[in-house]
Amino acid sequence: MLTVIGSGTLVPSPGRASPCHLLEAGNTRLLLDAGPGSVHGMARHGKPWWKITHLVFSHYHTDHFGDLPHLLFAFKRALPAPRSRPLRILGPPGLGARVEALRVAYGGFMVDPGFELTYHEVSCRGSWTDEAASMNIRFVPTRHTRSSVAVRTRLGSGSAGYTGDTGPEPALGAFFKGVDVLVSECGYADPPKADNHLSPTSVAALARTARPGLLILTHLYPPLDPESTPALVREAGYGGTVICAEDGQEFEVRGGKAGSQETQRVTAGRRRCSS
Prior knowledge:
- The protein has about 280 residues and is an alpha/beta fold.
- The protein contains 7 helices and 15 strands.
- Helix 6 packs across helix 7.
- About 45% of the residues are buried.
């Protein structure tokens, strides 16, 4: 299951929190980024924030990273029941230094929320596996910052890709090839004003190579409009299924094998965006 907790940007919005996406399979709950509003967003959408088992950061801009202290403070002070399962937090280079700065600023709960917590810095071309959780995570560099990454996750029987923030990057299409669902930022309108975010044209180019089961657009800055942007991606040459995310939307994410051909099945859940 994929739940969009935050589909927005750093621009304040009454209906779109900053980036945060929740993947669930069995007892494993993985967050991809935790921008401001993520913890309240999980509560608002009926997701048990206290059961998060893994958190992966794509980079350290505030709109993707800012709710980490809130999450850990909630673990320390607001758990509805004692917790024994560890929390694993992963990110590209720079994670340790930022956590130490937050510990100095906010207190010891950043490293000791009352149960086992581990931080893992992973190379921008690295991978990380948790066999007990049937999880594999792979990183590849993006051009947004010096240490920003895109993320590909295998969780249970499903696969998901997440661009984080990036500009046009030919290697990303192959990196995401065949994922069940691809969550892609689409920050700029065409022609883009810079090369540190994707636009409808560059999203379409990425998706033509990746060929995901479902393409979900997120992180749109004005003047892009959530209602019309999927059509812009299709007009730019992508023929697959594409929608624009909204907070609280859920998707079933399942993968399987049919002979030698992988099949993807992604079914919209209780809320749907316009396509």
